[in-house]
Amino acid sequence: MKLVSFSVEDGAVKGGLWFENGVLPFDAAAAIIDSSDLDLHSASVLNVVCSAQSVIDRLTELDHEVKSGGHSDQLLPLDSLKLLAPIPRPAKNIFCVGRNYLDHVKEGYKARGTELKVPEFIQLFSKPPTTVIGTGADIRYDEQLTQKLDYEAELGLVIGKSGRDIRPENALEHIFGYTVINDVTARDLQRAHDQWFKGKGLDTSCPMGPWIVTKDEVGDAQNLDIRCTVNGEVRQSSNTAMMIFKLQTIIAELSRGLTLEAGDIIATGTPSGVGYAMEPPRLLNVGDVVEVSVSGVGTIRNTVVAA
């Protein structure tokens, strides 16, 4: 099941289920299924992620019905709507894992000319909700603020079951689904501030989407191809199996003494091939088109524009 947020001609933001031949808005789904656990007429994707299991189960059944040819008259044509980030305004900052692929760690130390040290503990930072944009939206490049804008392809996971001090063996039970994230980074700000929040927290620096895919459709998320292209040229190509800290560990460690809530989003790190570490460096420029893909999840596409 793929959950999307979208806007229509009048600018209204809605949520719904995405299919190859159209989108079924939640308000249309409300007329088909009876749910006392959630008012689907006004529900957002975030509302659904946080809803009771009975709502998820009924929407899953409806998803199967539409894929079998039912309710086609209720679908909105894809060309009549604009996809937004699946959760356009997260309830709190996006949790992010830094330096979580060994090849990326190696290229970073090589680019800086320092001795390799593999992280012993998960390195965490966050991106504010104002960074989030959807596929097709523009990435702002303010050259008065930064001259080293970069890309980072990442698998994003969305929490569906709240918890604290989650045990690794139970961690995957807390995942609702997955999305694609581009952790856009101003490298010079990242270095100048000697921490990562400002360099990774600029407006439009978290393209996300195009939807949330429920975990039952993805299967083994620890074996997904991840890829980034700039103007059609492959820059990053790896697999989530190459993570240093696996998904269970990320959730368990992050939740130690810290409550993860339904709707929380975690970006799980990027592989090698980022622009600043190339020889010579190949950072983003105005006009560049960046595509980030994760197999079994989806692809987002964004263009860099002058601020």
Give the structure's gist in a few sentences:
18% of the residues lie in helices and 31% in strands. It has helices at residues 26-32, 45-49, 53-67, 102-112, 187-192, 215-218, 247-254, and strands spanning 2-7, 13-19, 22-25, 82-83, 94-98, 123-127, 132-133, 138-141, 149-150, 153-159, 175-182, 185-186, 206-214, 225-230, 233-239, 265-267, 289-294, 298-306.
Weakly predicted, low-confidence segments? none
So, CATH architecture of the largest domain? Alpha-Beta Complex
Largest sheet: 11 strands, mixed
Number of domains: 2
How many DSSP H or I helices?
7
Rounded mean pLDDT is 95
Rounded to the nearest angstrom, the radius of gyration is 19 Å
Structural class: alpha+beta
The CATH homologous superfamily of the largest domain is termed: Fumarylacetoacetase-like, C-terminal domain
Task: Give a count of the beta strands, DSSP E runs of length 2 or more.
Answer: 18
* SSE sequence, one letter per element: EEEHHHEEHEEEEEEEHEHEEHEEE
Whole-Å distance between the termini? 36 Å
* Quaternary status: single chain
Task: Quote the beta fraction.
Answer: 25-35%
Q: CATH top level of the largest domain?
A: Alpha Beta
Approximate helicity band: 10-25%
Question: Overall 3D geometry?
Answer: globular
The CATH topology assignment of the largest domain is: Fumarylacetoacetate hydrolase, domain 2
